[in-house]
Amino acid sequence: MRSFFPEPIRKLPEANLPFEGVKAYLSQSDDHQIIFMEFSRDVEVPQHAHAAQYAVVIEGRIDMIIGGQAHTYSKGDWYFIPEGVVHSAKIYAGYADVTLF
């Protein structure tokens, strides 16, 4: 799978995510993280909650349940999950996004 991200992003440190088939590049400071993610396999993300999350979908599709409501996002869409809101996801192979925590 070709990368959706240019070389300066691919040179960032790789984030250690607990899923097979994902490459994630991390830009981090004391008060936030930006993760550039791309998926070569389908991935199921179980329910969880954390700090607020904002993402822009670059390619592909993600099905999410956010606070009990189902949503589907694809290329060009964005989503926001407020801090502490329980969510889960089905991410499909070929998906890529930029996520801010």
Offer a quick outline of the entry:
By secondary structure, the chain is mainly beta. 4% of the residues lie in helices and 52% in strands. The N and C termini lie far apart (26 Å).
Along the chain, the helix and strand elements come as HEEEEEEEEE
Instruction: Tell me the number of helical segments per DSSP (H or I, 4 or more residues long).
Output: 1
Q: What is the rounded distance between the termini?
A: 26 Å
Which strand-content bin applies to the residues? over 45%
**Please, what is the average pLDDT?**
96
* Poorly predicted sequence stretches spanning 5 or more consecutive residues: none
The neighbouring-strand order within the major sheet is: 1-2-9-4-7
Count the beta strands. 9
The radius of gyration over CA amounts to 13 Å
Helix share, percent: under 10%
Record the SSE blueprint.
Blueprint: H1 7-10, E1 22-28, E2 33-39, E3 43-48, E4 53-59, E5 61-66, E6 69-74, E7 78-81, E8 87-91, E9 96-100
Antiparallel strand pairs: 1-2, 2-9, 3-8, 4-7, 4-9, 5-6, 5-8
Task: Write a structural description.
The chain has 101 residues and is mostly beta strands. The protein contains one helix and nine strands; from the N terminus they run αβββββββββ. It has one helix spanning 7-10; strands at 22-28, 33-39, 43-48, 53-59, 61-66, 69-74, 78-81, 87-91, 96-100. The strands form two sheets. The protein has a five-stranded antiparallel beta sheet with strand order 1-2-9-4-7, with no helix packed on it. Strands 3-8-5-6 form a four-stranded antiparallel beta sheet, with no helix packed on it. Strand 5 (61-66) and strand 6 (69-74) form a beta hairpin. The radius of gyration is 13 Å and the shape is globular. The relative contact order is 0.27.
